[in-house]
From TrEMBL:
Name by which UniProt lists this protein: Serine/threonine-protein kinase sgk-1
Gene Ontology CC: one annotated term: apical plasma membrane
GO molecular function: ATP binding; metal ion binding; phosphatidylinositol binding; protein serine/threonine kinase activity
Organism in which the protein naturally occurs: Caenorhabditis briggsae
Location(s), subcellular: Apical cell membrane; Cytoplasm; Nucleus
Length: 463
């Protein structure tokens, strides 16, 4: 789809409304609306329709009162486009003619005009967007290839977040722009799944990109596993069920995760797992569609990736098998310090399991770690195959998704700022606030590599 916010050939006027289809399927269609260069507002179609019926129906011409309806034999693409145009036209009319209405200003997050000024500020208000200067940087809590993760506190609300700060220069040098933008897209489409980290804001300046995320301070699964050596089968089942739910949800959205490992699984203060870091996700993977990019973490790579063959969503189920194996036995299934030797084992060596685990657990791991993806558990019905496996018979899936089950392990967390579960390797890294929140680096030029990166979760802004 064409970029609806910016164009090389023209400038976007301050009050111009643009609308973009973010996601469309049989269950839900999501549209993003933007006024000029302001923040992106993202809502499901029904929210726009409800706003129209409840608040502004009497403010618009009669031609806008007829909602787009799907006609017989009409394609989804055409139907979604009609909805998009309807939203864009209605919003444009309201912005052009009805900005004195409190309901309109509230819906679009428009600041009220001064009595002495006939112009309306349609840009982002201080309350509805964020910059790095809105936060106190407290502690380093993570480190990656392109930047670091910090525990931060919002200066006004005092709420604690995790802020991921990435260097644009490093991203460009490594040709990772597409992966970063894919991560942003996945984050804004998570719709607050209980086992996926949620994005509150994303913004940028001339040098850096910023993700403001849920702060989860129960520690990495990796750290707990290192300390305890291995987990019980029951505890491993609880974590594996959460991971499977998260992967199944991503697959339902046509996304392959591709980087499942204990380092990307964080515990919250209630002992529930949350999947983080979506930098290697692959979007638009409908049905049995395949891709062939070589990526992931060596210990958890599926055979087809190592062999540079086309692969599909089943690579994530291989990774689940590897992580489950590691939780129970303490190391990944084909581990070797020598990567070439490990790759050879993954491709050629038969899986060996100790007899200390139950038959259902043995069968699940064996099914997930099938070297032939066409025989791998999850190949036929994806998440449903995993959910229906006898190993998960004790799991009440509804209660799990509603977070109503008591976790088998509750990390010791005193409060939101507690960093006792964070690796000292990260905590000891000194913070340079001047470089993280520079005063003179606001984006005043168009950065085409990272267009539309900015995001505000309007459903829970700064709460």
């Amino acid at each position: 789809m064409d970029n609806l916010y910016y164009s090389e050939s023209r400038m976007v006027r301050k009050d111009e409304v643009s609308c973009k289809l973010v996601m469309g399927d049989d269950k839900k269609t999501v549209y993003a609306v933007r006024i000029g260069d302001g923040p992106i507002m993202q809502k499901v179609y029904e929210e726009y329709e409800k706003f129209f019926l409840t608040d502004v129906k009497d403010m618009v011409p009669e031609k806008f009162t007829i909602f787009p309806k799907k006609k017989l034999l009409q394609s989804k693409k055409t139907f979604f486009e009609k909805r998009r145009l309807w939203i864009q036209d209605v919003c444009q009319h309201l912005v052009d003619n009805q900005t004195k209405s409190e309901d309109v200003r509230r819906f679009f997050h428009i600041e009220a005009p001064d009595d002495d000024d006939n112009t309306v500020d349609l840009g982002p208000s201080e309350r509805k967007t964020a910059t790095a200067n809105d936060f106190d940087f407290l502690t380093t809590i993570g480190k990656g290839s392109f930047g670091r993760v910090y525990q931060v506190r919002h200066k006004e609300t005092k709420k604690i977040y995790a802020m991921k700060v990435l260097s644009k220069e490093h991203i460009r040098k490594k040709n990772e722009v597409k992966h970063v933008m894919a991560e942003r897209n996945v984050l804004i489409n998570n719709f607050k799944h209980p086992f996926l980290v949620s994005l509150h804001f994303s913004f940028q300046n001339k040098e850096k990109l910023y993700f403001v995320l849920d702060h989860l301070n129960g520690g990495e699964l990796f750290s707990h596993l290192q300390r305890e050596k291995h987990f019980t089968e029951s505890r491993s089942r609880f974590y594996a069920a959460e991971i499977a739910c998260a992967l199944g949800y991503l697959h339902e959205k046509n996304i392959i995760y591709r980087d499942l490992k204990p380092e990307n699984l964080l515990l919250d203060d209630k002992g529930y797992l949350v999947l983080t870091d979506f930098g290697l996700c692959k979007e638009d993977m409908q049905g049995s569609k395949t891709t062939s990019t070589f990526c992931g973490t060596p210990e958890y790579l599926a055979p087809e990736i190592i062999l540079k063959k086309p692969y599909d969503k089943t690579v994530d189920w291989w990774c689940l098998g590897s992580v489950l194996y590691e939780m129970i036995f303490g190391l990944p299934p084909f581990y070797s310090k020598d990567h070439n030797e490990m790759y050879d084992k993954i491709i050629n060596q038969p899986l060996r399991l100790k007899h200390t685990i139950s038959v259902p657990c043995t069968e699940l791991i064996t099914g997930l770690l099938q070297k032939d993806r066409s025989k791998r558990l999850g190949h036929k019905n994806d998440f449903r195959d995993i959910q229906d496996h006898p190993f998960f018979l004790p799991v009440d899936w509804d209660k799990l998704l509603n977070r109503e089950l008591k976790a088998p392990f509750i990390p010791k967390v005193k409060n939101a700022m507690d960093i006792s579960n964070i690796s000292k390797e990260f905590v000891e890294i000194q913070i340079d606030p001047a470089s993280l929140a520079p005063q003179q680096l606001a984006v005043t030029h168009r950065d085409h590599d990272f267009e539309n990166f900015t995001f505000v979760d309007t459903n829970r802004v700064l709460v």
